[in-house]
Amino acid sequence: MGRLLLALSLVSAAVASAAVSETAWTPETYPNPMVDVTKCGRGVASWICDPDKILSSEAANVVEGLIKKIQAGSPPYVLAPCGNIGMRGFQVAVALARRMQESSDPAGYAERFARALHDSWGVGDAACDNGVVFFLSILDRQLFISSGAGTGKLLSFDVLGDIIADVRPALKDQRYDDAVERAVVDIGLALAGRPVEPEAGGSGSGWDDWVAFGLFASTAGGLAWWAARTDSRKRRRYQDRHATWESRHATRMGPYAADQPRSGPCQAHRAICQPRCTAALLEVSWNFQ
């Protein structure tokens, strides 16, 4: 009887695992991390939703720490003016999926997906629309960054291009923990007006420090550790990689490569565009030869 129960448990676990891996998400079926805390994998309300368990538990904790520090405006991140409510930190949300519902236009669907989550989750303060949603669909090979009008010029086409360039190597190597951590760090630094430093041949020592800050700053003595460590190092000089990134990858970026708004809800009339449309709209395929 014991062996039978064990066998049934193993079968049930296998079926559950298969069900998770085969879920084809839509914006309507994708869980909300502020409400569906169990489905999103965090167990508490947060700005991370990972129903397919793309991230390890450790990486999810790191990303959670980074998101909280960005919103709190803790150094190296900053607060910014937000309408008539004073200074506020930027809100960053992360949505990960193994696959989306099948579409003849995966890039366009990823865009609609990310922007739908941005609106339905309410990412960003209403007074200044300062939210950012990082959306990644693994099997569809789509990455989309949706940002509100309150991010201003901080998340420009060039800056988003550098963020994409930074995470591409990790995505290509299926180092998803690394890719998501890097993306959130880069977004936070960009929103603080700091340079984004694309990866060049592996993990840079400077970037490792930013992630370590996200992991340890909430613990006792974490801020002191961060200050001592960063004071002992000089930040690497920022090298503008956009020209190199554009020449190598523009053909893969399709309509997003040039400084042109994507057709559809956001066309040429950027001045009257909806807030979600004012940011650069990017997608990337990393499964290249």
UniProtKB/TrEMBL annotation:
Keyword Membrane: yes
Lineage: Eukaryota, Viridiplantae, Chlorophyta, core chlorophytes, Chlorophyceae
Transmembrane segments: 210-228
PANTHER family: GROUND-LIKE DOMAIN-CONTAINING PROTEIN, PROTEIN CBG04600
Keyword Kinase in annotation: no
Signal peptide: 1-18
Gene3D superfamilies the record matches: 3.10.310.50
One GO CC term on file: acetylcholine-gated channel complex
Keyword field: Membrane, Signal, Transmembrane, Transmembrane helix
Pfam family, one: MOLO1
Protein's name according to its UniProt entry: TPM domain-containing protein
